[in-house]
Design brief:
Layout lengths: L25 H5 L19 H4 L44 H111 L2 H31 L14 H14 L3 H8 L5 H8 L15
Helix pairs in contact: 3-6
Length: about 300
């Protein structure tokens, strides 16, 4: 049996591959004693795997599950428990009995099964990590979109608040203007009512009592009187030459003085029909008032004598 043969790695082939037990060192053979494992001849006790005991390269199960993402620790509970070998052996330990070899082989078989299970779990966890990272990325994108939308909404709210503030100020100004307009309208209505019910009458009365109007009317009256006097003299000479007496002359009227006095009295106390129409309807429209005030055309009284 070669002294350099080592236990086959169960991870590289079948778990039932032949296992060669290493030969004890030459110094032990010279004494003719069976190799033994004693506490004095071994290194300080350390927990190592059977693979390390055979001299193969060191293998650490935890290296298969190095975190690939910040989210990997979240799934640590899904990993199998760390492998702890049942044999307290060191690299210098000699496996000298078939029972110990079989025990190591059985332990390696269980370790291989656990490794495969761990690889399956790791694959599933990597898929979960990828999916979770994808969901996290989508969530971050949605949050950024929500943040942008929030900023737009805040800008819109600010704009509408400013617009509402301006509108409220405009409404207050409009209400103030409306109040002024209502006051002005009410004032105009009162003034209009006074003008139609009293103003025109007071104006006409003041005008008729003015010295200017009285003087003009007096001059017209005297002119008419002078014209009548001259016409009377002319007609009187004509009628006298004809031998007609006073009562026999045309246009003789013994009631002329009384009639003149009556007309003079009526003229001073009579209200014009136009003024009566205006004062009786103080709510008439402006068009109706204009139609009443339109002149009917110039007119002049007939000559007393009928001559030019």
């Amino acid at each position: 049996m070669p002294s350099s043969s080592l236990v086959s790695d169960p991870f590289l082939g079948s778990s039932r591959a032949p296992i060669v037990i290493p030969i004890a060192p030459t110094s032990s053979r010279a004494k003719g004693k069976a190799p033994e494992v004693s506490a004095a001849s071994t290194d300080p006790v350390a927990e190592v795997s059977p693979v390390q005991a055979t001299g193969q390269s060191k293998f650490k199960l935890s290296e298969c599950f190095r975190p690939r993402s910040p989210l990997a620790p979240l799934f640590a509970e899904g990993l199998p428990a760390a492998y702890i070998p049942r044999w307290r052996i060191t690299p210098s330990t000699v496996i000298d009995t078939p029972e110990r070899v079989n025990a190591l082989r059985d332990e390696n078989v269980g370790l291989l099964s656990e490794l495969k299970t761990s690889q399956t779990v790791a694959t599933e966890l990597r898929c979960q990590v990828v999916n979770t990272e994808k969901k996290l990325l989508e969530r971050e994108q949605k949050e950024r979109a929500w943040q942008d939308e929030k900023e737009h909404l805040l800008a819109d709210v600010k704009y509408y608040k400013e617009a509402a503030s301006v509108s409220a100020a405009d409404v207050e100004i409009s209400y103030a203007n409306l109040g002024v307009a209502k006051d002005d309208s009410q004032k105009l209505a009162i003034e209009r009512h006074w003008l139609l019910s009293q103003g025109f009458g007071l104006f006409l009365s003041a005008f008729s009592q003015s010295e200017e109007f009285k003087g003009s009317l007096e001059r017209v009256y005297r002119a008419y009187r002078d014209v009548g006097y001259q016409s009377g003299l002319k007609d009187g000479y004509s009628y006298s030459s004809q031998g007609l007496k006073t009562k026999e002359t045309p246009h003789y009227n013994s009631m002329a003085k009384k009639h003149l006095a009556k007309l003079d009295e009526e003229f001073g106390g009579k209200t014009p029909i136009l003024l009566v129409k205006i004062t009786d309807n103080p709510l008439m429209s402006l068009g109706e008032l204009k139609s009443l005030l339109e002149p009917a055309g110039p007119s002049s009284p007939k000559s007393l004598s009928g001559d030019d």
